[in-house]
Amino acid sequence: MAKVLGVVIALVLVMALGIYIFSxxxxxxxxxxxxxxETGGNTENSGVKTFVVTASNLRFYLDGVESPxxxxxxxxxxxxxxxxxxGFHDWKIDEFNAATKQIKAGATETIEFVAGRKGIFEYYxxxxxxxxxxxxxxxxxx
Length: 142
Ligand SMILES: [Cu+2]
Hints:
Elements (H helix, E strand, L loop, with lengths): L1 H37 L3 E3 L3 E9 L2 E4 L2 E2 L3 E3 L4 E8 L3 E2 L2 E2 L4 E2 L3 E2 L3 E7 L4 E6 L11 E6 L1
Parallel strand pairs: 2-6, 5-13
Antiparallel strand pairs: 1-2, 2-3, 3-4, 6-11, 7-10, 8-9, 12-13
The chain binds copper (II) ion.
């Protein structure tokens, strides 16, 4: 009888160990998974976000997506790599005093700013009537 009890205890211990190891592997996978899914056009490294935004007449693009919503967390340091492929444009957000120079086709400008407050802000091109003609999108701070 004591022998049976010993086997049962051993089985329970093995199962508990198995569950523990499984949960460790599971939580490691979750961390890796979220890091991978973040690398779609922007890179996340503990509060640093980089977006490569391109401009052509009269649209902004990120990885081929037109007027992309750019999402960051409050306090993130944001880098915008602004590449102008066609025409004459800039990239601005009034609320963060973030603005590139107005640059010509083929030029690239990089700016940095801190997303200091939460909300949905509009980024846009301030050249001529470009904003009214669709050169704008949402910058979302959560
Ligand atoms: Cu423009």
